[in-house]
Amino acid sequence: MVNYIDAVDAPLKNTGAIRLYSADDFAGMRKAGLLTARCLDELAAIVKPGVTTSTIDRFVFEFGMDHGALPATLNYRGYKYSVCTSINHVVCHGMPDDKPLKEGDIVNIDVTYVLDGWHGDSSRMYPVGQIKRAAERLLEVTYECLMRGIEAVRPGARTGAIGQAIQTYAEAERCSVVRDFCGHGVGRLFHDTPNILHYGRADEGPELREGMIFTIEPMINLGKPHVKVLSDGWTAVTRDRSLSAQYEHAVGVTATGCEIFTLSPAGLDRPGLPPLKR
Ligand code: MF3
Ligand code: CO
Ligand code: CO
């Protein structure tokens, strides 16, 4: 059984009940999401061949400090960085280091700022210089997966509708959906109920209600879906070393659909890809 609880009454830990947030809470998420989006916008000009992911990590930390926000990942379950930087066959949770990015790489940059207690969690893919057509196609497919998942969000639908929309599109494009990681409730907590699977069927999972806030963050592979975590305990890679991509937004369920809290104010939701006519 799923329970829903008014977010103001909920304890600040994951009790398994799904929080329902108020209009004021949505305003808090809008601010946190916008700050994260502005950081991701700035990174579009920073990511290029020769730049290290440590430099990106420092930028994300400083940008947060300058705007009164802390990166949620810093010291989260022992994670030591302000950002995740996942390159090529790294699926997620790549750790910044001193290795320069090189022409042709694709890198996911995943930022979560905590601003006034609200968690703005979002990620985008960044092409490094000129990338191969296969890589570009993976980015296009993955972004489209995210947006199709978001379009499935409305009160009365189940979380499975999001997964079904994503899986159907990804597999029709001969790509695969990673099963080992999922989207999550977000808001006062970084990772909360419910899990948002990026595969499955529309009649599965809890019913979406106005006031729910969660992320959608599909990880899509060019090869097989299987993942392994390296001995550092964090870095997840594709088992077949095929390329993997991910985009993430934080969204809130409204009366008629959803609000995206982490949209780029600069129209840079797909950095390095041609603008979409939607
Ligand atoms: N930002 C990631 C997410 O989308 C979580 C990163 S947790 C970390 O949920 F510890 F790896 F940073
Ligand atoms: Co997330
Ligand atoms: Co994230």
From TrEMBL:
It comes from the Bacteria. It catalyses: Release of N-terminal amino acids, preferentially methionine, from peptides and arylamides. GO terms for molecular function: initiator methionyl aminopeptidase activity; metal ion binding; metalloaminopeptidase activity. PROSITE patterns: MAP_1. A divalent metal cation 2 binds at residues 121, 184, 217, 248. GO terms for cellular component: cytosol. Binds 2 divalent metal cations per subunit. Has a high-affinity and a low affinity metal-binding site. The true nature of the physiological cofactor is under debate. The enzyme is active with cobalt, zinc, manganese or divalent iron ions. Most likely, methionine aminopeptidases function as mononuclear Fe(2+)-metalloproteases under physiological conditions, and the catalytically relevant metal-binding site has been assigned to the histidine-containing high-affinity site. InterPro entries: Creatinase/aminopeptidase-like, Pept_M24, Pept_M24_MAP, Pept_M24A_MAP1. Keywords: Aminopeptidase, Hydrolase, Metal-binding, Protease. Its cofactor is Co(2+); Zn(2+); Mn(2+); Fe(2+). A divalent metal cation 1 binds at residues 110, 121, 248. Monomer. Removes the N-terminal methionine from nascent proteins. The N-terminal methionine is often cleaved when the second residue in the primary sequence is small and uncharged (Met-Ala-, Cys, Gly, Pro, Ser, Thr, or Val). Requires deformylation of the N(alpha)-formylated initiator methionine before it can be hydrolyzed. This is Methionine aminopeptidase. It comes from Pseudorhizobium banfieldiae. The lineage of its organism: Bacteria, Pseudomonadati, Pseudomonadota, Alphaproteobacteria, Hyphomicrobiales. The gene is map.
